[in-house]
């Protein structure tokens, strides 16, 4: 995370060490990168709900489940699949019953924008059905905010809200009104946690996210950053080319995921080449310094 995120600001760090049963109800601006970041930050194991069509192939689905991902289906993925959400709800409730933590994206889909979109009813349905089983589930709103969606090395703001008021929800006369009361509470908090920025408003983005770097630090990091840029350029160019072939809303997530998978092999390749041409001592120095040089470059590159 120190490389693919330049700076992570968390308004309530104590939430990272929470014990369950907890449901984090979040916005969803940056595809599966949102889940990667939260999984990395949390001290306890975090289960995340992910789009159901990714589980279409049995082998892939089994792998995703081993990565603590659970499928959730939307209407546009086929109405015939919606009934499978009950199985996912049951899986979530098993997690809650053992004091686990689940992350759900309450907008129902992902879009690269600084804007809270309308909330779906899935979060409310999961919560009320869990309460009906006697599990005292706590729901915490979560706002995830990025400085940019196509720049590697993010400035990320993680904003946790206050637990929703269960009593105000369950005292409603009908099930429909309970769902409405739930979403009203959740939306009210998320609007305070999710930044609203018009497209192209770089001045506001800078005021929210920019991290100033002291001149002495720029001088110290200049040479390692240059070396890091040169050493990692072939890998980064190839990863960007592959990620660009897919939907823009998944670009950031694909870049980070591909780098995570490919970097160990790239690091080994550079080490072997350096051993062959420079000797093992220089190869060892370069191999050990590569991650630091990558971090130095991320610190100096543009932020907005």
TrEMBL record:
InterPro entries: GPAT/DAPAT, Plipid/glycerol_acylTrfase. The keyword tRNA processing does not apply. One of its GO terms (biological process) is phospholipid biosynthetic process. Residues 22-147 form the Phospholipid/glycerol acyltransferase domain. Keywords: Acyltransferase, Membrane, Transferase, Transmembrane, Transmembrane helix. SMART domains: PlsC (SM00563). GO terms for molecular function: glycerol-3-phosphate O-acyltransferase activity; glycerone-phosphate O-acyltransferase activity. The chain crosses the membrane at residues 219-245, 265-298. This is 1-acyl-sn-glycerol-3-phosphate acyltransferase.
């Amino acid at each position: 995370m120190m490389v693919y995120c330049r700076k992570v600001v968390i308004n309530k760090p104590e939430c990272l060490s929470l014990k369950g049963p907890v449901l984090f109800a979040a916005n969803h601006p940056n595809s599966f990168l949102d889940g990667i970041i939260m999984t990395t930050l949390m001290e306890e194991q975090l289960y995340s709900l992910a789009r159901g069509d990714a589980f279409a192939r049995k082998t892939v689905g089994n792998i995703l489940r081993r990565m603590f991902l659970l499928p959730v289906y939307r209407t546009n993925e086929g109405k015939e699949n919606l009934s499978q959400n009950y199985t996912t709800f049951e899986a979530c409730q098993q997690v809650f019953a053992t004091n686990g933590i689940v992350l759900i994206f309450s907008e129902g889909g992902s879009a690269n924008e600084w804007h809270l979109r309308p909330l779906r009813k899935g979060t409310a349905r999961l919560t009320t059905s869990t309460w009906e089983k006697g599990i005292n589930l706590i729901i915490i709103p979560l706002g995830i905010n990025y400085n940019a969606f196509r720049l590697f090395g993010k400035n990320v703001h993680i904003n946790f809200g206050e637990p929703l008021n269960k009593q105000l929800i369950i005292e409603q006369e009908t099930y429909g009104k309970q769902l409405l009361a739930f979403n009203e509470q959740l939306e009210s908090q998320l609007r305070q946690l999710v930044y609203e920025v018009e497209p192209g408003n770089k001045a506001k983005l800078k005021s929210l996210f920019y991290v100033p770097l002291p001149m002495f630090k720029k001088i110290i990091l200049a040479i390692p950053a240059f070396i890091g840029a040169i050493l990692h350029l072939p890998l980064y160019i190839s990863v960007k080319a592959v990620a660009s072939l897919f939907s823009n809303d998944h670009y950031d997530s694909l870049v980070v995921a591909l780098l995570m998978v490919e970097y160990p092999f790239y690091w080994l390749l550079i080490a072997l080449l350096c051993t062959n041409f420079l000797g093992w001592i220089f190869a060892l120095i370069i191999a050990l310094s590569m991650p630091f040089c990558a971090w130095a470059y991320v610190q100096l590159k543009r932020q907005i």
